[in-house]
Amino acid sequence: GKKPLRQRVLDELKHYYSGFHLLWIDTKVAARMVWRLLHGQVLTRRERRRLLRTCADLFRLVPFLVFVIVPFMEFLLPVFLKLFPEMLPSTFETESKKEEKQRKKLNAKLELAKFLRETIAEMAKRNKADTG
Length: 132
Known about the structure:
Elements: H1 5-38, H2 45-69, H3 77-83, H4 95-131
Helix pairs in contact: 1-2
């Protein structure tokens, strides 16, 4: 069934709190990584990806904060999220959105693998016809 309005509002507030908290933690870790970079250390591939993701999240936070600060503009947030689905920082994504993204990536990879398999099979047939 559908949750009461009060519970949905509390769930959204908890979601935003945890999103800002995770973004704060990521920002602190990214600041340490930048400090290490400035002092000549090399980042691992994983650290580099995390640093890039955190920087992108901070840039995405600017338009998102407009919705939070301006009164009653949060009602337009779902419209803008439909138009610009990558507008929210990654720490604000729900599990269902993450699973949907993973599903889309997996389907794209499967289609690419299918295409490559068919291409290799076709090349094998041509080579067999040429040599036979």
